[in-house]
Design goal:
globular; four-stranded antiparallel sheet; 196 residues; mainly beta; 2 helices; 15 strands
Amino acid sequence: LSIVNGLAQTPDSWQRVKTLGNTASLRSGVVGFSIGNKGYIGTGREGSFYKNDFFEYDPTTDVWTQKANFGGTARYVATGFSIGGKGYVGTGRAGANDNDNKNDFWEYDPVTNAWTQKANFTGTPRSVASGFGIGTKGYIGLGIDINNNFLPRYKVPDEKSKVVKELKQLAKKAAEVWLALDEDREGESISWHWAE
């Protein structure tokens, strides 16, 4: 079951569920994770205001409950995952300046409704990273690394190297190449790197 804008997805369909309503403002760049049969979302940005509030959704009662505020600096586009009955949130961006990316990490305990700071992410501070938990370990990758001039880190999978080589050859022969991109920095960055 996943919840997006007051909709829940089962394997075959979407159904409307209760929204946060006036409890939380409309915002972007929130982070989420699940623990057991409950979902958690929080942080994010509303215009130029960064948020640190957090909410729990119980699908059995269709009720949202405000929980303890996130323990770190208010931010958006953080990453989150869960391991062993606890949630983890870290990285993200806490302001409009290029040096506002974060690398701190926090653990949420739903039993005590409390946040505890953990060891910092050892990579460079970043936002829009992807995270997931497997077993007893959490994994963080990708994201926007502003401190290294938006340096992309990627590896073309061996099975796709032929396709990439063909695309490069075709682009060299073409009079014009159109790059379709998302309307955000990531899309611009992807297209810029392809053009280079």
